[in-house]
Amino acid sequence: MHRFWEKIIQPIFKKRNVQSIVEIGAASGAHTVKILKCCCERNAKLFVIDPFPQFDTASFQSIYGNRLQIWRQISLCALPQIKHYDAVLIDGDHNWYTVYHELKIIENKAKQTGKFPIVFLHDTEWPYGRRDMYYLPDTIPAHYRKPYSTKGIKAGQSQLADQGGTNQGLNNATYEGGEKNGVLTAIEDFLRETYFPIRFYRVKTNNGLGILIPNNQEDDLTIRQIIAFSGL
After folding, report:
1. Beta bridge partners of 198
2. Are strands 209-214 and 118-122 parallel, antiparallel or unpaired?
3. Using one digit for the tens of pLDDT, what is the confidence trace for 36-52?
4. What is the mean pLDDT of residues 116-135?
5. CA-CA distance, 189 to 209, in Å (whole number)?
6. Residue 221's Cα: distance from chain center in Å?
7. Which residue ranges form the domains of the chain, and what is each CATH number?
8. Is the dihedral of CA 145, 138, 156, 5 positive or negative?
9. Distance from C-alpha of 194 to C-alpha of 6, rounded to nearest angstrom
10. How many CB atoms lie within 10 A of CB 32?
């Protein structure tokens, strides 16, 4: 996600005057640091959701104080507890069940506030656009959990590789494609159901970035220009 910050995400934040941000999946904090710098400049606040953050959370908290809240929970437990946000960055558990239900939680909050936030989603293209991956398989209900294995993924090949491949140490769904499989599929299924008028933009580089934003002509032109000028 951090590879999109300077050219796409930050310009949209500035244009939309974003003040309250949720980041799902912080990992090493590479993107978190960039968001927090923006928060300091704009008097904004960041909620980080990650059950196992890979950075010194105490140090971050001492530096950024009340601009930062860290929730060491899975997203489907933490997200409903956050009362307000203008933007959500989703880069956590890359599977249909988690992403679809993250979007449903956001939608339910929007029904209360009357405003759907801008949502950025990473890994909307290969390898996880059409294939589930499970960081914590036991948190996914069995009915939604695809057969999986800790084997690598090869482009153009549905079945997992016997040797080598991308992300061979992760819990990857055995096959690519089909119903309720992958991040992009979750987004498409959500968009078919929601009554909110939402536009969906796709940037296909760097494993893909999806952008969901309430539909209006001014925002449409702005985001199209930002994406076009980004060169991504």
Report:
1. 214
2. antiparallel
3. 999 999 999 999 999 99
4. 98
5. 17
6. 23
7. 2-131+179-230 (3.40.50.150)
8. positive
9. 30
10. 26
